[in-house]
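Study this:
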Amino acid sequence: MNFYFEIKLLANVELTERILMNEAYAQLHTALATFKTTKVGFSFPGYSKQGLGATVRLHSDAETLSNLFEYIENNRYLRNLRDYMSITECLSVPTDCQYITFKRKQPSLSSAKIRRLNARGRIDNKQMQVMLSDQKMLKEPFIRLKSTSTNQRYLLFIQQGKVVEEPITGDFNTYGLSKNATVPWF
């Protein structure tokens, strides 16, 4: 994780920051799935409870990032978004940085799962209404994605961990997130 490049979204009246992040993130997820790599982690320098911000950093080694950068340059969907983003070259991570985790946060039971339980007869309508009203809404920022296998839309909630002084190595999923592994934070 000694290198990174940064994608900065340039929102305007037509395309908001959130819409651009959803589109860019979907394509980055596809790229990571295509490469079958577990060595690329994402960070969001503008992360807040209101959203992920307009910048996503991709962290890894120089060779992996170079291949990913080339894929992004040649991807026709991301090429269509090029007017709305700026991408830096591959840069070295500052030596005096801290580290942080970004991980996926999921509700214990989604509304869809509760409705499926009802449809299968495992809970009655009254239980379903109680479960739906008691269900905690996650407060973390999210990305709206569409599954390529089922064509269903879903929310990917992203939780920022605590800043630590030493890196923790590990694998990242195809969303660029990890429960334990850290990415540089600067």
The mean pLDDT is 91. The first strand starts at residue 3 and ends at 9.
